[in-house]
Amino acid sequence: MASILVVDDDPDICALLEFKLTSGGHAVTVEHDGEAALAALEQQKVDLVLLDWMMPRMGGLEVCLAMRADGRYASIPVLMLTAKAQESDVQRGLAAGADDYILKPFSPREVAARIDASLARAVR
Amino acid sequence: MVDANGGLVLRLTVALTALVVLLVCTTVVTRGWRRRRERARTAAEAVARPLILAALDAENSAAESESASASESGSGSGSGNALAPNPPQVSPRVGRYLDSMASAMAGKLRGGDRAALVELLRRRGSVDRALRHCRSVFTGRRLRAVELVGSLGLVEAVPELAARLDDPDDEVRRAAVRALGRTAAPDAVPALLALLDAPQRRESEHYITLALLRMGPPAVEQLTAALRTHGPNGRRAAAKVLGWLGEPHAAGPLQAALDDAEPAVRSAVVEALGRIGLPAPAPAMRELLRSDQPSPVRVAAAVALGRLGDPRSAEALAGLLTEPHLLARSAASALALLGPAGLTVLRAHAHVPEVGEVLIGRADAELPDLVTTAGGRS
Predict the structure, then answer these.
(1) Closest alpha carbon to A105 in B104, B171, B130, B145
(2) Helix, strand, coil shares of chain A as percentages rounded to 5?
(3) Residues B64-84: tens digit of each pLDDT
(4) Range 54-73 of B in CB contact (< 8 A) with A
């Protein structure tokens, strides 16, 4: 079981992902903006972050950059889950340090599979 | 006199007090009504959300057991709907929220989970109801219906949605355009493009091209056909979308459309070929640099040839460096993208102001690298 931080400003998506990932045996924490996500990282151990890009107060890209610049969180896998589908967006997301980039509309099962794969790689 | 004034003041005071009391009462009642509506919404969502998640869970279980039985028997997979439960029985109020939430969530998903939500709405009768309501006399009901079938991307809804492209209400028409884009049904392409050349055009090209772009590759065949069959606005939009999609198979039909009678269409076609990036149409594209072509077409051709990066375009682009500012600037920018062949031409024309601007721009961009290199040497 892993501890996963889901960060998205869409409550429906958060509810769905929380449901899916909890069903898959993970512990899930949900936050709705980037600042709250960074605060959550301070307060608890997180094994993986699933991150939306466009959010109020602080976007996912900034969160990712902040995590990679902070030695405490630099090794935590980050998966971007976003509607920003341009080639240049994907490049920016991966260049910011994301380990994977998933486009919306998304398949929750595929997200769960990618999370498991990322967690397995992180363990290796 | 004093009494008359006193009476007037009294009446004014009473009237103002009554007005203030009325405003306070209205505000209190409105706030109370909003709070009540919000509580009702929250309560209905609290009931509806678990039902939606349960439907997704059932779909997952069905998919997993199918996958397990398929791997045991070695057969392929079928539909997971065989094991789907009956639709949940809920009050009409909760049902409305359930429909709204499930359709909104379906629009954000793909794959089996999306199909499960569509199936849930079908079993509830919500899809059939929405298809009927697309023709309702009530604007709000039509709008909700179009948005629901749109978020589900139902191909079967294309005729109803196409009929709504003539809706008297702006919002319904735009919702129908968006919804047709989500269906990704090739049949919807001609109807959308035809809007652009309608005698009383009411929809902006922006909405329509976005919807076509959203359709993606399934729309390519109809878009390429539209290059020959539609009016000038439709042909131009089709070319633009083909370029944005970057579909290599569209390069042939686009090349054939380079001699379109309308300059605006030729511009869009050559731009699209530049975006697709195949080298074969380059000679035909260079023909559009000729002085007998309108200036916007020549500019579009220069930009597109720059995108292709074919050094054999350098000579043709050099011919534009003595033209007026916009043409010369476009040609200089394009030459800068052609590698050494383009740079040779630019240096030979360094006295041309537009070329100078481009060369200075390049030098500025390269300066940090040059400084780093020099620092490394020292």
Answers:
(1) B104
(2) 45, 20, 35
(3) 666 666 555 544 444 444 445
(4) 56-57, 60, 63
Q: Which domain holds residue B167?
A: 43-56+92-183
A109 to B111: CB separation less than 8 angstroms, yes or no: yes
Residue B156 lies in a domain: yes
The domain total for chain B is: 1
Residue A30 bridge partners (DSSP): A6
pLDDT of residue B347 exceeding 90, the answer is: no
Q: Rounded to a whole number, what is the distance in Å from the CA of A111 to chain B's nearest CA?
A: 11
* Mean pLDDT of the region B224-233: 92
Q: Say if residue B33's pLDDT is above 60.
A: yes
| DSSP SS3 for A82 | strand
Q: How many whole angstroms separate alpha carbon B296 and alpha carbon B289?
A: 10
Q: Is residue B112 one of the residues assigned to a domain?
A: yes
CATH of domain A3-123: 3.40.50.2300
CATH number at B163 reads: 1.25.10.10
Report DSSP letters for A16-45, one per residue: HHHHHHHHTT-EEEEESSHHHHHHHHHHS-
The answer to the question of residue B2 being in a domain is no
Chain B CB within 8 Å of residue A15 CB: yes
The pTM assigned to this predicted structure is 0.74
Establish if B137 belongs to a structural domain: yes
The ranges assigned to domains in chain A are 3-123
